[in-house]
Amino acid sequence: MDCEGTVIISCGTLTSEDIICKILGVETLPESIASDYAVKGYLWNCKNKYYSTKINLYALEEKTELDLSFCNNIKAVIFYFDTQKQSSFDDVASWLPYLKDIDSEVQLLLCNDCPEENSNPALERKNILKWCIENQYELVELNPVPESDDEDEQTFNCAKGFDRVIEALQSYAWADLVFEEDKPSASGKEKGNSSASNKDGCKTLKVEDLELDLEEKWLDDVLRGEDPGGESFEALFAKFASMKERASGLTGDDRKKYAEKVAIAFWRATGGNEDEIEGLDDSDE
Predict the structure, then answer these.
(1) Using CA atoms, how far apart are residues 50 and 180, in angstroms rounded to an integer?
(2) Nearest CA to 102 among 80, 131, 69, 56?
(3) Which of 32, 34, 198, 268 lies 20 to 30 Å from 236 when distance is taken between CA atoms?
(4) Closest CA to 256 of 229, 283, 233
(5) At what angle do helices 252-269 and 240-248 cross, to 10 degrees?
(6) How does pLDDT run across 140-187, given as a tens digit for each residue?
(7) pLDDT in tens, 243-272
(8) Degrees (nearest 5) of the Cα angle 168, 169, 173?
(9) Nearest-CA neighbor of 57 among 13, 15, 96, 97?
(10) Do the beta carbons of residue 1 and residue 33 sit within 8 Å?
(11) What's the pLDDT score for residue 37?
(12) Angstrom distance (rounded) from CA 80 to CA 88
C-alpha cells in the first residue's frame, strides 16, 4: 500500500478491471489489496530490461473526495471512454474535479478507436485531440484502424493499444525502482551517492538520478544497434527535454560529443542512412 499507484477510471463498456487485467497480463484478477478508499487495488510487479518496481493499480468507480495521502501516491491517471457516446466523453470531464489533488505524471485517455469522422462532430478525432492537448492527456486507441503504407509508423515502431499503455507507465521514474545493472560506468566506479547495491547485484536508485541513468542506457542501446524494448524513438523523444538540459550544463568538447551522441541515436532510431552520419564520433569515450 505504500508504493505509488495508477488510478484507472472507465466511462465506457470496457471496465476498469478489464483494463487492469490487460496490464497485468492475466485472465482473472488476483485478490484486491486492502484499502481504506472507495477503490479496488491490485499490485503490479512491473519489470522490464532496465528496472523492476511495484505499482498499485486502482479501479476507481465512485466519484468521491479522495484522501490527500492517497492522491499524493498517484502518479498516473487512465480514463477509458466510448467514442460513439457523447455521455461517455462528458463523464470523463465530470471526473476531473475529483482528481484535482492528484499530480499525475502520466495521463492517458483510452478508447477503442477514434475515427477522423464521426456521426457526432464533437467526438471526431480532431476535437478529442484538442481536449487531450488542453488537459495534457495522451490519446491511446486500443484497436486503431490499420493504416496501410504508413511509413512513419513503421519506421518509428510506435507501440499500439495496451502495449502503449504499459510503455507509457514504464516510462515514468517510479519510486523505489531497482535498476538492473548490466555494465560498469565509464569510470569503472559507482556514481556518487546515487545508489546502493543489494546482494543480487541490482542497484536501487534515487528517483532524481534514475532519469539520467535510463537516458544513458537508451542512448547506448541505440548506438549499439539495439532497439530498447521496441520503442527506441519513443523513449528518446520522451527524454529529449532532459537531454537538452543536460547538454546546456556541459562545455567544450564534452558538449559537442554529447550532442553528437544524441544526434546519432535519434538518426538510428528513425532508421536513417548510416552514410549520412559518417564521420560523427559515436564512441563511448
Answers:
(1) 5
(2) 69
(3) 198
(4) 283
(5) 160
(6) 999 987 764 444 444 344 678 999 999 999 888 888 788 776 434 444
(7) 666 677 777 787 787 777 777 777 766 666
(8) 105
(9) 15
(10) yes
(11) 56
(12) 9
Is 207 in contact with 177 (CB distance < 8 Å)? yes
Strand 106-111 and strand 178-179: the pairing is unpaired
Task: Please report where in the chains the cell 559537442 appears, as a residue.
Answer: 256
Rounded CA separation 121/179 (Å): 47
Residue type at 43 in one-letter notation: L
What's the pTM? 0.65
Q: 74 is written with which cell numbers? A: 498517484
Q: Average pLDDT over the chain, rounded to whole?
A: 76
The predicted-structure confidence for 47-106, as pLDDT tens digits, reads as follows 887 888 999 999 998 898 888 999 999 999 999 999 999 999 999 999 999 999 999 989
Query: Residue type for 183, please?
Result: K
| Complete DSSP assignment for the chain | --S-EEEEEE-SSS-HHHHHHHHHT-SS--PPBP-SSSEEEEEEEEE-SSEEEEEEEEEE-S--PPPHHHHHTEEEEEEE--TT-HHHHHHHHHHGGGGTT---SEEEEEES---S--SSGGGSHHHHHHHHHHHT-EEEESSPPP-TT-HHHHHHT---HHHHHHHHHHTS--TT-EE---S--TTSS--TTSEEE-TTS-EEEPHHHHHHHHHHHHHHHHHTT--GGG-HHHHHHHTHHHHHHHHHT--HHHHHHHHHHHHHHHHHHTT--GGGGTT------
Supply the pLDDT for residue 214. Answer: 56
